[in-house]
Amino acid sequence: MIKATGLGSNRPLSGQLYKYTNVVKGWQQRWFAVDPETGVLSYYLFDGPGDTVQPGQPARGEAHLAAAVICPSDEDSKTFTINCASGDMLKLRATDARARQEWVNGLRAIAEIHTKAMGANPPLQPREQLAVHDAMASARQQLQATELSDAALARCIESSDSPFPHTDPDLLLLKATSAASMQCLLQCLGILLRQQQYATLSISKTSSNDH
């Protein structure tokens, strides 16, 4: 279970999650921790009950949450993904639906803080870049609203009055099309966010060289 959640917490967001590695290894148990000050998500080798992460233990991997898109999966009630601005994607699974929602809420709050910080008044940033940053923030909000609508559609189909909601080809096609469109939008937003990040870094380097 998560130790700390909340926008204003100065303690790491941490707990046990399962990380999908590959088809051969499948799901691997890991200990995850997020430092809200740096926005870095780290994960460690973790064997389960009785095992602990030792102070100074090197992380198995890290990812920065700035400009990351965190999205619950529609394949079950426990899985969610983190699409990082670097292009990396983490597929994770919580212990239950409630834990997943706590993780998603906590990670999104931290990601939002560091996404804003990443684009907040870089040296000599053109007005156009500020406009792009605002547009990206709006797109993220719209995408999260779309994600909720997609989940509501899936629930509606599953609770449909149709005697065969899970085999009706039209309902299955509608659900699959909605889910595929959602994933496509997430990937597009990830690409745009990476382009924005690279542009911001390029402008900052140019400004530094000019001085």
Labels describing this entry:
211 residues; alpha+beta; seven-stranded antiparallel beta sheet; 7 strands; globular; disordered N terminus; disordered C terminus; lipid transport; PH domain-containing protein; PH_domain; PH-like_dom_sf; lipid-binding
Account of the protein in words:
The chain contains three helices and seven strands. The protein has 211 residues and is an alpha+beta fold. A hairpin with a 5-residue loop joins β6 and β7. The longest helix has 42 residues. This is PH domain-containing protein. One of its GO terms (biological process) is lipid transport. One of its GO terms (cellular component) is cytosol.
Q: What fraction of the residues are assigned to beta strands by DSSP?
A: 15-25%
Structural category is: alpha+beta
Q: Can you count the beta strands?
A: 7
Distance between the termini: 49 Å
Point out poorly predicted stretches: 1-10, 203-211
Put simply, the count of helices is: 3
Biggest sheet record: 7 strands, antiparallel
Order of helices and strands: EEEEEEEHHH
Shape: globular
Computed over alpha carbons, the radius of gyration is 19 Å
Average pLDDT number: 76
Q: Which strands sit side by side, in order, in the main sheet? A: 4-3-2-1-7-6-5
In helices, the fraction of residues equals 40-55%
